[in-house]
Amino acid sequence: MPTYSRIDTVFERGEGAYIWDTHGRRFLDFTAGIAVNALGHAHPYLVEKLTEQAGKLWHTSNLFRVAGQEKLAARLKELTFADTMFFTNSGVEAWECAVKTVRKYHHDSGHPEKTRFVVVGGAFHGRSTTAIAAAKSDKMVGGFGPLLDAFDQVSYDNLNELRAAITPETAGIIVEPILGEGGIRPASIDYLKALRAAADEFGLLLVFDEIQTGVGRTGKLFAHEWADIAPDVMCIAKGIGGGFPVGACLASEKAALGMVPGTHGSTFGGNPLAMAVANAVLDVVTAPGFMDHVSQIGDLLKGKLGELVARYPSVLADARGKGLMLGLKCVVNNGEMVTRLRENGLLVVGAADNVVRILPPLTIGEKEVTEAMEILEKTCREFAQ
Fold this sequence. Notes:
This protein is α/β, with parallel strands linked by helices and about 375 residues long. The protein has helices at about 30-35, 45-55, 65-80, 90-110, 130-135, 140, 160-165, 190-200, 270-285, 290-310, 335-345, 365-385, and strands at about 10-15, 20, 25-30, 85-90, 115-120, 150-155, 170-175, 180, 185, 205-210, 235, 245-250, 315-320, 325-330, 345, 350, 355-360. α2 runs antiparallel to α9 (about 270-285) and α3 (about 65-80) runs parallel beside α9 (about 270-285).
């Protein structure tokens, strides 16, 4: 179906932060599959573990125990707030599971009237009918109604508006700690702490969508850790598979009260191939020094982006983000900026608020930062002229 406005480029191989098209041209990839290829292209350890599993077993379904699921679940339980989790193939599936988990919790806790969610404007949770009903973006909802009426939108990082939107029917609060598609807008630490307090005060479940922010992208395993709080439910995907389709809905034992046999399922979710890769990703990102590297290289890159903004005020307005989830708010059209950067050898991706997202593999070093800045400098100079 012609649902994508595809760029006329075909890639055939990648290595680390670099990717080559079918004409042999090399690009520096700071899109990383939209924050998916967390460890870059063809990471040797991921290739090894996927190949090893591929020679043994691909699929059994969830009719049986899956050893890789049990291993990954135990590790995530040790590393996060979660006591239990459901493995999926994608981020939006994990998000849908989160919605079901929250509603079932209130139903089984004696509050079946609690079915609504407070969500923030500018968020993006996926393309299912429920997810587009939550985001209510004009470009996503047109022609797909009637939509599920269960989501009350409020402004991002505005606690007063959020608290005012809570009613006796509210079941949960759903927030991205940093808006991704919404323009790389980090929530303040105070706001995140206040969300936890509000959820507790009103008897709600707090859901963090960490599909893009999670698995080391900000310099912590999950972005909410910067605020020293924990959600009740969390959706993850993208980085946890390093390029292989896998996601998960994580929950506390309390929040998952109603998720008993028969309430949810997936044919492919948590298959042995996906679990082999996800466990391998976790091996790498939890290794000593990995998160420190992401924070250090992220600070370096953000600092240089800030200097670039200062040099080209007619082209760029702001540099923002955290870790290696960064954005440049443009003065010029961000789509034109994305195109010109690609022509000059750097792959980036646009976002709302006229922002260019910069989402490199978490494994980049100073060499790749220097190369990226040279391309960005050249491109800004072209626009300024």
